[in-house]
Description:
By secondary structure, this protein is of the alpha/beta class. Helix content is 39%, strand content 22%. An eight-stranded mixed β-sheet has the order 3-4-2-1-7-9-10-8, with helices on both faces. Helix 1 (14-24) packs across helix 3 and helix 2 packs antiparallel against helix 3 (56-77). The structure holds aspartic acid and magnesium ion (MG). ATP binds at residues 5-8, 218-219, 229. One of its GO terms (molecular function) is ATP binding.
Amino acid sequence: MKVLKFGGTSVGTAERIKHVAGLVSGRGKNIIVLSAMAGTTNTLVEISGYLFKKNVEGAKETINNLERKYFQTIAELYDDAELRNEAEREIKACFNYIRSMTKDVFTSFEEKEILAQGEIMSTLMMHLYMQGIGVNSALIPALEYMRTDKNGEPDMQHIRQRLNNLLDKHPEADLYITQGYICRNAYGEIDNLQRGGSDYSASLIGAAVGAEEIEIWTDIDGMHNNDPRYVEGTRPVERLSFDEAAELAYFGAKILHPMCVQPAKYANIPVRLLNTMDPSAKGTLIGNDSDCGAIKAVAAKDNIIAIRVRSGRMLLAYGFLKNVFETFEAHRTPIDMVATSEVGVSLTIDSDKNLDSILEDLRKFGTVTVDRDMVIICVVGSFDWKNCGFEANVISALKDIPVRMICYGGSDCNISFLVRKEDKVKALNLLSEKLFD
Ligand code: ASP
Ligand code: MG
């Protein structure tokens, strides 16, 4: 059994839905995980925004517009009048449910219920379409098995047990369809796995059923060796290790949700990234074994803030780094890069949410300076320290660019640089020229 996940653009129009139905039918009893149709989750966020601000008219108008789009899609999707009527009835019910949220107090609980409707609607429409083309699909509601615990972490035991029970109830099914992104939390309330979380759902589902492979279908043919928005002639990387893929996903390659890698890695299930628009393209295979001895890809993460704390008394002092790190922990702010010297430490964060209070606390331990608008450039590949010359090669590519920080040796698979925002595109291009041309 495989898990096949399709993102929002892959199911973004009636035509795309038909195309995906064609791709998945006849391939065996797999689990199909869908995102909401492209744009829907953003619109649902917008509707919630109106309701938080008590702008009921704005919310209603946006709901009506979105509903019209869905009815248009339904009109294009089903030839059979009976299926069309059923789709209209069910989608109407979803919109009426969203409308019912405009009548009373609106909190983040209601918001999550609204956000869940996107995936509920896309899977419903796909399921009904399957019936029309003679595929006996079974709709498996994520809200009945996907759950997080009190720490917001997936409750793997619950997911495994409930999901397998639900699948067992449909021995006659040709394939299964389920929602990405949505779940219940430890209190049974409707919740989600954060924006872009459908990839994570697919990985959790794959781990829960012991899938043979997890396929993530998007609109690009795999993970590219550099950012195609800024660099010409990038190529898909054929193979990546889980660790390499995790670094790339975290440091900017938008194609995969960073959390997605973990469950698949621990269950040792290969993840294949494929292109809905070009299904025969090879894509990228992510697995526990990867080809060694190569530099694979470059990615960039924007809006980074670098903080340097200089201690007058760090020489032979202990406790300084502990104090600095504890400050970030106390403000629940994750650190990306770290570089130390005998007199100070530089680190980076990607959010200024708690910056003022962090800086105030850090000033107790030394002189603090801040550089904003920085970018992390992350190069991924075989950076085992015993491989000679790999890091030198990468560093020499950036010889004409001012580099604020370098991190190497934290893992076997990456080296990262911190540069100014205005040097990002040049840095990405220089690295591609040096490493991949
Ligand atoms: N529909 C959700 C989002 O737009 C989840 C996903 O697509 O992965 O964030
Ligand atoms: Mg996505």
